[in-house]
Amino acid sequence: MKNSVIAKRFIFAKKETKAINIITAISIAGIVIGVAVICVVLSVLNGFRSVVSNLFLTIDGNVQLVAREGQTIRASDETLKSLRALPEVASAERFIEGKVLMAAKEKSSVVILKAIEPTAVKQLTGYMDIRRGLGERDLAIGGGVANRLGAMHQHEVVVISAKAIDEGLEAIQNPLSKKPPELPAMKIANFFRTHRAFDETYALASLGAGRRIFGYEENEVTGIDIRPKKDVFGKPLSNEALRAAIEKWAKENGYENALQILTIEDKFSDLFRVMKMEKWGSFAALLLIIVVASFSLIGSLTMTAIEKRRDLYFLRCIGLTAKDIERIFLIEGALIGAIGVGIGVALGFLVAFLQSEYGLVKLPYGNAFIVKAYPVAIEAWDFVWTAVVAFLLTLLASLYPARRAAFLSEKLSANRE
After folding, report:
1. Do residues 150 and 293 both lie within one domain?
2. Which of 12, 15, 67, 417 has its CA 20 to 30 A from that of 111?
3. CA distances from 112 to 148, 204, 340 (A)
4. Are 206 and 158 in contact (CB under 8 A)?
5. Does residue 18 register a pLDDT over 80?
6. Are 15 and 25 in contact (CB under 8 A)?
7. What is the pLDDT of residue 353?
8. Residue 313 buriedness (CB in 10 A; 0-12 / 13-18 / 19+)
9. pLDDT tens for residues 92-138?
10. Which residues pair with 227 in a beta bridge?
11. How many domains does the chain have?
């Protein structure tokens, strides 16, 4: 307790050398700026990650149930009803997905066709005119696919699956015993623009059309898209929480060996891994601001120890040991760090919150993007880790001047004796 009181006096007491106060203020300001900048940058990177995730979630569910072996699963109405009854699940929708050759009048291209249920079309609100829907002969294609094919609205295309190609080759080899397959002609009824990963490679159709194109039986699908309910704060449950609930359901119903559970992060693991590396790389780089501020702290505490030599001698005279002197300067460094970190976290949260609510800083050429201002997603653990690492750096910076002050007090005490 007495060490803390003395440390506070060393910080706030008037000093003969004004440069010490200036250097201390610079140290605190550096810590405040460094912590605030890190908190804001991490929140912005979280925001971009959230934007990308939401774009993926227009086509795919947060969690997908797919076959552990093979390409299809059996998903009856009873299975869907059981899934939808889970308290964590908002929707569970069957889908069929696979590569097809899409041939227009003059051009052709290999695309991924995803056949979805009518309720899943609602997820594309804002990215596609959902009022048109998807009929049994209708296709909705990404902007990139449309450019490659030169396809326009109401143009007809032929969609050929791998199974149809195999059957066609068999018919050529055995024309008397094999009939050539019927190639479904589909009509371009809609266009969508979400993430480039979908726009350049995906086309959408109804579930019935998907069964016809791929030759699947009733209830035979590629998988089930599952989306989470919202928590009490109005935010969707995390993918991890949803995955845990689905794993428990699969185990209880004996599906754990037949079904594989994939989150959106699993499906696009490379992209999310790069974004995570970018986030923590930025964190490490921005820590240099706090490291520089810590060097100022070393200078400030060392100069305080030199100026307070007389006080150090008196403290030794009243019974304080060299260890006590070291603790006093460590506490002084910790207090300076705590002040800087506390103000920095508060400032970072305030800036991130204002950007999230009001979009104060706009993106350059924002009209060309889905979002007009820098997106922000505040995650509490980012603020906690930033505060902890920044505080530990200030403590580390306090070690040298604290030991220097302890050595100086011993030397002064020995000289007086």
Report:
1. no
2. 67
3. 14, 9, 53
4. no
5. no
6. no
7. 95
8. middle
9. 999 999 999 998 888 889 999 999 998 888 777 767 776 677 888 99
10. 91
11. 2
116 and 17 co-located in one domain: no
Residue 95 · residue 63 · CB < 8 Å: no
Evaluate whether residue 318 is within a structural domain.
Answer: yes
Cβ contact 160:101 at 8 Å: yes
Distance CA(25)–CA(300), nearest Å, equals: 9
Write the pLDDT tens digit of every residue in 23-50: 778 888 999 999 999 999 999 999 999 8
Considering the domain architecture, whether residues 233 and 290 belong to the same structural domain is answered as no
Question: Does residue 317 share a domain with residue 199?
Answer: no
Q: How does pLDDT run across 270-302, given as a tens digit for each residue?
A: 888 999 999 999 999 999 999 888 888 887 777
257 C-beta neighbours (distance < 10 Å), count: 10
* Whole-number pLDDT of residue 348: 96
157 vs 105: CA distance, rounded Å? 7
Q: Check if the beta carbon of residue 326 is closer than 8 Å to that of residue 406.
A: yes
Q: Is 61 part of a structural domain of the chain?
A: no
Whether residues 122 and 212 share a domain: the answer is: yes
Is the residue at 168 inside a domain?
yes
Measure the CA–CA gap between 150 and 108, rounded to whole angstroms: 9
The pTM of the full predicted model, rounded to 2 decimals, is 0.80
Question: CA–CA separation, 353 vs 40, rounded Å?
Answer: 9
Q: What are the tens digits of pLDDT across the range 219-270?
A: 899 999 999 998 887 788 889 999 999 999 999 998 888 899 999 888 888 8
Same-domain check for residues 30 and 94: no
**Which distant-in-sequence residues (6+ apart) come within 8 Å of 191 by Cβ?**
128, 140, 141, 142, 143, 146, 153
> 243: domain range?
69-257
pLDDT at 16 over 60: no
287 phi-psi bin (left φ>0, alpha ψ -120 to 50, beta other): alpha
User: At 50, which amino acid appears?
Assistant: S
Structure tokens given for 77 = 């109405």
Q: Is the separation of the CB atoms in 212 and 218 below 8 Å?
A: no
